[in-house]
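Lecture notes, structural biology module. Today: joint structure prediction for complexes of two components.
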Amino acid sequence: MTQTDWIAVDWGTSHLRAWLLDAGGTVLDHRSSAKGMGTLERDGFEPALLDLVGDALTDGAITPVMVCGMAGSRQGWAEAPYAAVPCAPPTADAARLVGTNDPRLRVRILPGVKQMHPADVMRGEETQIAGFLSLNPGFEGVICLPGTHCKWAHISAGEIVSFRTFMTGELFALLSKSSVLRHSIAASGWDDAAFAEACEDAMTRPAVFAGGLFGLRAEALVGDLDPVTARARLSGLLIGIEIGAAKPYWLGREVVLIGDDALVAPYRQALQAQGCPVTLTDADRMTLQGLRAAHQSLKDPAQ
Amino acid sequence: MTQTDWIAVDWGTSHLRAWLLDAGGTVLDHRSSAKGMGTLERDGFEPALLDLVGDALTDGAITPVMVCGMAGSRQGWAEAPYAAVPCAPPTADAARLVGTNDPRLRVRILPGVKQMHPADVMRGEETQIAGFLSLNPGFEGVICLPGTHCKWAHISAGEIVSFRTFMTGELFALLSKSSVLRHSIAASGWDDAAFAEACEDAMTRPAVFAGGLFGLRAEALVGDLDPVTARARLSGLLIGIEIGAAKPYWLGREVVLIGDDALVAPYRQALQAQGCPVTLTDADRMTLQGLRAAHQSLKDPAQ
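The predicted structure, tokenised, for the full assembly:
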């Protein structure tokens, strides 16, 4: 078996994912576990990492590990203080070197990025942005990263100039699973026309958003609103108010969407309906590419 | 002990409350239990009622019970179909007579009110509106009932002309207790200035609402946002977008607020900041008064 030269790790709140790479940069294996930051105490990170990749380490040798994500937060493994915008996505120079009990590990955690006015933070997305920029040097425009907390970042001259976070994914989950709307919202399924109409309405008239949420429940009770239609309409109301608020980001610019297919599809639909040119990229690939760029920037990864 | 002549019941999703009244209309006792509709199967309602008030019934006699609220929903004790706006709050004529195993009970459930376009429903608030109108005949204006699902009702000529529901209270609970914001929001406390500023901002620029939610978390991380200030600001963002969307209701009209003091206080502050004249009334008193009006309209309560 080819020896693992270094390990790339994406450590979020709810997941831990690792890629094992050889000296030529080829991925030997991709592994994941549910041991996200949210489930771990400070002394649980090294054991969780060893559980996942310990068999790939070589006795007597040092395997560099490059980490991005919430593992670098104050409640994580070790705090990697935020870089402040405007800035390029942090490189390995700014990474936090973490002491480990296992001498075979040399763990570095990449910082997140913060913005003071208006206050905002990201941890993990900056590495996806770094990955995209390493593949598309000279890109000028906007990168949108849909997810639990969707980020919009304005990129110019290789730097994150400003960014804004919307809780759209978390609101969708709370409303569809934990609110009174749960009785009226299907667990899956989609309705393009219902999404498009609700999205456009909420974008242009935010009053539709505030009043429209309970309307989904009411229309199921007094009418015959289909739960799949209700699901698409809820998504439309939430993404519509987000797209409306993010207009200073996308208006007149090219938007790159980074995320899983299911997450980015409604954003693409909404932006294209506004005549906004959209490019789709794969989130996992950008994460790995960003970690790769950080690793390659190290002069001596074993130090 | 004076004999209970009839019983007024407010039966919501999460509570059951009963007033025992004598023949002169004096309240002999007020009791409550946690056996709300949400906790009961259909055959659990009569036992729950007997647990609470059974000792006040007289063997060989019939005690009328007038009920409002979610007990009349499809998932409740017995469905009392909605009246449709425009309509006066339903009276006892429209109440659903519910069969009971205990011959001492004569239970009636008042219907809720529905609106077809835009779809909306209420159950319980129509009885508070009836109570207010019985004390203020000829009232023309708007009644706002803050709560888990805040209702705005346009009242004219004794009828509910139209109404709109906002999930503001439920959104506040979900965001402050179950979202990532829970780390940054105090469980209690208030900041008038922070509320006023966030409310005004969200009302006039709804983009502030969408982007401002995660900002509460970010400002706690990169700044020093006080959790009490964050609590007031979250309330301001949510009530601000509601007040903005409800503008066609309150603009140029007198608004009556029905609700508990803590619930109505921020609405009063927000509406007064807009120059809107506001009158406060007590929710429990209006509920009881509405049930009283319904009971008194019965020709023969024991039938």
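Point to remember: The first strand of chain A starts at residue 6 and ends at 11.
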